[in-house]
Structure formats: C-alpha cells, structure tokens
Write a structure and sequence with these properties.
alpha/beta; Rossmann fold; five-stranded parallel β-sheet
C-alpha cells in the first residue's frame, strides 16, 4: 500500500530488532526506502554522513549506547525532519529542545506512524 511515505528515503534508528524489522517492513511496503535500521548513535551518524539524501527519520530515544539526541541535533542542523518513536519522553519534555518534532509513544499503530512521517514534509513534495 503506497502512502505519504512512498518514494521517501527514511533513516530508521531503533535498537530493538523486532521493532526495527516491523517498522522497516511497514515502511518498505508503503514505498519508502530505508537507511538502516541503525541500532546506535555511531551507525546512525555514519548513515547520515554517507547518505546523498535523507527525507525524514524515525528515532527511538533510548539506544544501546546512549540516547538519540546527538542524531536529532545533526538532523536538525542539516534540515531533515524527524519523529521520535519511543516508550520514553513526551512532547512537553522534548518540545523546547526539538521544536516541531512529533513524539509518538510506543506502541502506536504503524499506519499512524507512517502518516506522521509523511506529514513531516512540505505539501509541495507530496
């Protein structure tokens, strides 16, 4: 099923293998191209630096080695929109540090997450 993420290159940062696999399959089924999944900050940063294009990102907050805030800061610096997909944190906690970044609490319906990712981009792109 094609959705608002069709054709997007989406960076997926998730350290839980089953969650990562589920999201990867859902994104691919929806027509997105996946970078990752990256289980930690180092892998995510390598993917960011090596990518020609990243349209959006899905970030788990708590990763194997730390939190994903350095990734979020790098994405903000290069103008890539992202959504936090996490069992921790809230919009209130993250809003001042990462304004405009949606926070989706796990568990969330996969289609809802895909819709949020698709909505991160300007209407002119879609």
């Amino acid at each position: 099923m094609k959705t608002g993420v069709a054709g997007l290159r989406v960076l997926l940062v998730e350290d839980e293998p089953l969650v990562a696999l589920d999201l990867e399959m859902a994104l691919e089924d929806a027509g997105a191209r996946i970078l990752g999944p990256a289980p930690n900050v180092a892998v995510a940063m390598d993917l960011i630096e090596g990518a020609k294009r990243i349209d959006a990102a899905i970030l788990d907050i708590n990763l194997q080695d730390s939190d994903s805030y350095p990734i979020a800061e790098r994405l903000m610096a290069i103008g890539v929109p992202f959504v936090f997909h996490t069992g921790h944190g809230s919009q209130v906690e993250l809003g001042s540090r990462f304004p405009g970044a949606p926070v989706c609490r796990k568990p969330i319906a996969t289609q809802t997450l895909l819709d949020i990712v698709g909505s991160l981009l300007p209407q002119t792109r879609q």
